[in-house]
Amino acid sequence: MIFSHGFGCDQNMWTIVARAFERDFRVILFDHVGAGRSDLTAYDPQKYASLDGYADDVIEIGRALGLRDAVFVGHSVSAMIGALASLRAPDMISHLVMVGPSPCYVDEGGYVGGFSRAQVDELLEFLADNHLGWSAAMAPAIMGNPDRPELGAALANSFCATDPEIARQFARATFFSDNRADLPRIRARTLVLQCREDIIAPECVGEYVHAQIKGSDYVLLDATGHCPNLSAPEEVTAAIRAFV
Amino acid sequence: MSEPAPSEDLDDLYENAPCGYLSLAPDGRIVKINRTLTGWLGTAADSLLGQPIHILLSFGGRIAWETHLAPLLRLQGTVQELALDLLHADGSRIPVIANAAERRGADGGHLFTRLTLFRAVDRRAYERALVEARDKAEALAKGQHETSVLREQFIAVLGHDLRNPIAALAAGVRMLNERETLSARGQLIAREMDAAIGRASALIEDVLDFARGRLGDGLGLARDSKAPLGPVLEQVVDEMRAIAPGREILTRLSLDRPVDCDRARIAQLASNLLGNAVTYGDPDRPILVEAATEAGSFILSVINGGVPIPPAARAHLFQPFFRGAVRQSQQGLGLGLFIVSEIARAHGGTMEVASTDEQTRFTFTMPLAPA
After folding, report:
1. What predicted TM-score, i.e. pTM, was given to this entire model?
2. Which helix (H) or strand (E) holds A181?
């Protein structure tokens, strides 16, 4: 079972949910190149200009570990990264769990993604401005958090540290992606987990994904916002467990 | 009697604090906001309560909140120094710096997320100016570095390409001398050509050494600790005696320990120092070459009499293209002492100069074996 984080954070997003599956699955967590504690020197702006570069990395990880019929759990943009990987390596990934997926963030024709092109441009501008807050060097010092023991040793590290320039390029690759045409080709068993009041991936987008992937399951969570893996880990865990 | 100090009103402190206060429910909805903040926003608190925090944020801020800041808060419990833009009722933006912390109940349940906000208009402008200045400086430095690499490559290539025609000239003059019957005048011209070619070759070698020293990798050394150094130095002195037959050059060598050095480079160093002593020293006074191994070091000094080097000039002696202003008639590029100091540096050694009315002494010191 591979857990893949989305834009803006790192593998720590999955710590709590992943732990629930450690007994029954071989659990794999990783940071996408450019995020968390990945090797920043491996970042190649051309390779990672589109989601294909990230999907190639997933396949490479799967090959290195000899994975077959794995469950790929992808949050946010990683849902599509997993979908692309499953199309290219169908033997490797048999099940897809998409948490807050969106195949296309920008509205186009009759399709509602929730974003206008100008808004995505504004986001990129914001990331350029907010370079200090996103800088790995400026990642806030962590004072320890004794009331959250479930996060354990991870607290010794800085979370979600991202090189600001890479964050901007990942945002561009994410929010200008359009993988709608790939959805009907997905053969892996798929579960779509949709949150309420998610401004990144609104309900209509989750329903669209569900409708486009033949035979997929769809669960509307009670959780609100875009990160149910953190805000409602029990609900996410239960939904995944029922599916696998 | 002074008036009793007024007691602080906590409600008033909250509402009219010199910073914005904002409390969110776990689902991100606004549950409390102070008057300072609503004043900045140009909106009444009533119309904000119960709304998601998104309505206060610019679009980019909303995405960052959902994808980065909210997860960070969940993971860490607190996030400091966020740069956010708030939206004023009229659509304009208010740059703020915010600290945020989760407030949890006794059972560990998430009660609120509290934010403290400070206006940061000037700070943001300053940060932008800093980033722009940094980008500009980086671009400039990159350009300069590229230019300097090209310049030094140019010098190195030029030096190499000049060697071949010079070698052809040298061979031609040698053939004329050895195999042709020249008139007395022809022989004189050939000798002068030979000397001119020798000077040109020496200049080219100096330029090449300069380029090597400045290309970053420094001078390469072929160290040899076994071969004796004394004969090498004697040969340098003999060559100089041949070039300057009128000058008295004394040697005092006491080398009883092996010296792990590049002998050709040490010969070059000694030759450059000796050449300077011949050129700049008082021709009526002898030049002394001292070399000794003592206390783990190899020490080589070249001493001459004459006009002392002015203190101001001493500071620049070892810089490239520096020529003493003492006399303008001297030839050369001003690379001799720069190369001497590069050779010293490559050996982990030092160069020192002492100059008085009595004598001018250049001293090279290096460890007998590399550290």
Report:
1. 0.61
2. none
